[in-house]
Amino acid sequence: MRSKWFLCALCALLAAMPSLAAPKVLRVLTHSSFAATQSVIASFEAANNAKVQFAAGGDAGETLNKAILSRNNPLADVLYGVDNTFLGRALAADILQPYDSPQLASIPVELQSDPTHRMLPVDFGYVCLNYDRAWFSTRSRAVPRSLEDLAQPGFRGLLVVENPATSSPGLAFLLATIARFGESGARGWRSYWAGLKNNDVLVVNGWEDAYYNQFSAQGKGRRPIVVSYATSPVYELYNAPAPRPSEPPTGNIIPEGSSFRQIEYVGILRGAREPELARRFVDFMLSEQFQADIPLQMWVYPTRSGVPVPDFFRTFAPVPRTPASLEPGVIDTNRDAWIKAWTKIMLD
């Protein structure tokens, strides 16, 4: 009788403790640059009796392609890392389900590019020009102040850029020049790029080659100006060997209206196996805990208002007052034609 009572009590206890059940698996497809502190992800898993499995899909465009091609049998529940250069394509493919997260109330409206809430903004950063401080200082050379300067004879052979057909920052920089110079005319973006070509600009396929092989600040290259990120200097400072210098070896060139703001989004894929857990994870990515982890993990800015960033971000990677701006729909409509035109100018 006592053993029967004990078994009944044990069964009741187990039924009242769902945390003892096997954790649910949440699949998250991300671009290859995703990073988060392990303990932060572990806190979500513990709170939701879940196991998060991340799969890297390549760069933003490649990751989106994989999500589209697998739409009938989704590779994941959650998609992260599509940015505003591919937002229109992601929405047109109709692979995402809307979710009006309560956390959106803490995110500035200007970062919420999708009114249908299929893609929710997680972080943002700026593609701009970085320069080698020592190169310009030791030669007593002036740092360029505008995009126009880069096409002048005094800066001949100093710039390395990435191919927009194969590189995310390369595409962002192309879009910045389109926003800055316009679509046509004697001073349009096509004429600007022709001027860069005549001024011996170097084009490489990817950011790593440009930054680590061609950029002089890394000690390997001969070009003191590179298309990179506004947070590249703070990354260099943070990761400098001890004793840490007082300033980074690189600086930013951020003329008004000439740096492109990249916003990265998260969304729930249609056909998600764990839609409720996916919604909780989206809320988590927009929460204070996850947002505070972003700056020193992915070297971009959190979208949530009031989340602090390290002091040296504000000193050496200030947010541009007037970034270049193009609507996602305009980008989606013209992206392929713009890249084709750029290729004809620069590589034919």
Keywords:
348 residues, alpha/beta, D-Maltodextrin-Binding Protein, domain 2, eleven-stranded mixed β-sheet, 14 helices
Give a verbal description of the structure.
- The protein has 14 helices and eleven strands.
- It is an alpha/beta fold.
- It has two domains: 2-125 and 261-316, 3-Layer(aba) Sandwich (D-Maltodextrin-Binding Protein, domain 2), CATH 3.40.190; 126-260 and 327-346, D-Maltodextrin-Binding Protein, domain 2 (3-Layer(aba) Sandwich).
- Strands 1, 2, 3, 4, 5, 6, 7, 8, 9, 10 and 11 form an eleven-stranded mixed sheet that branches.
- Strand 1, helix 2 (38-48) and strand 2 (50-56) form a beta-alpha-beta unit.
- It starts with a helix and ends with a helix.
Q: Which shape, going by the Cα principal axes?
A: globular
CATH topology of the largest domain: D-Maltodextrin-Binding Protein, domain 2
Task: Tell me the number of helical segments per DSSP (H or I, 4 or more residues long).
Answer: 14
Distance between the termini: 89 Å
Mean pLDDT reading: 93
Instruction: Report strand %.
Output: 15-25%
* Uncertain segments: none
Judged by helices, strands and strand pairing, the structural class is alpha/beta
Total number of distinct structural domains? 2
- What's the CATH C level of the largest domain? Alpha Beta
Sheet with the most strands, sense and barrel status: 11 strands, mixed
**Overall number of strands:** 11
The CATH superfamily of the largest domain is identified as: Periplasmic binding protein-like II
Secondary structure: helix percent: 25-40%
Examine the secondary-structure arrangement and name the CATH architecture of the largest domain. Answer: 3-Layer(aba) Sandwich
Rg computed from alpha carbons, rounded to a whole number of angstroms: 23 Å
Query: Could you state the order of secondary-structure elements as H and E?
Result: HEHEHEHEEHEHHEHEHEEHHHEHH
